[in-house]
Amino acid sequence: MAKRHLRRSCAPWWWPIPRKAGGVWTVRPHPGPHPLEKSLPLAILVRDVLRYAKTLKEARRIIAMGYIKVDGRVRRDYKYPVGLMDVIEIVPTGELYRMVPHPVKFLTLVPISREEASIKPCRIEDKTTVKGGYVQLNLHDGRNHIVSPDEAAKYRTLDTIVLTIPEQSIVKHIPIQLGSLVIIIDGKNVGKIGRIVEVIQTFKRRRATVAIETEKGEIIRTILEYVMPIGEDSKPIITVPQECY
Fold first, then answer.
1. Full-prediction pTM beyond 0.85?
2. What domains sit in the chain, N to C, each tagged with a CATH number?
3. Tens digit of pLDDT for each residue in 81-111?
4. How many CB atoms neighbour CB 227 within 10 A?
């Protein structure tokens, strides 16, 4: 695959673009907080999802004028990758959305309130020790958060921490454990929500099999790497589509 260009036929299957119309090429996202197969370029989001533009030229102009914020910051790069749990704000209208998993669309935008837009759940992908003995939490969206060694003991990989945006202060910690409310973020059951009722551990923790019970009593099995905690009570801390239940 070309490094600077992307054919429509090679784009991720869930992108809302026609495959045999509109030309050969589409927008290839720049390297950023999310990988290509799990992100959507800002220009396609403005043009094909939000439909604020009819052409790529119009979408680029809207973005260049600073009308779009991602996680509380203006983004003027039309190739900026938008992905899981990102908060999008349309500055002139005040509309707010979050990118969340969906059973059919893989990732979709859901309208959220101003209060909810001030937080963002991030999954801990790794922990590394840095200078001074501090611990760096490496999050799913490319962020790194430094915590003290004593504080780091309570955080495990694949747990979720809730950050304020754009300040990035930790306001909540949701561990991944039996009883946790989780959403599936990958695999054939993507977008489904339920509680963890069983964990079958394997040699690699990320590949452990988990059983998730949905609100309807259905049992779904997937791997630990494909789930993200979004609550400890019966209600998730973020807005999700009705199709997820």
1. yes
2. 6-83 (3.10.290.10), 117-174 (2.40.50.740), 181-244 (2.30.30.30)
3. 999 999 999 999 999 999 999 999 999 999 9
4. 26
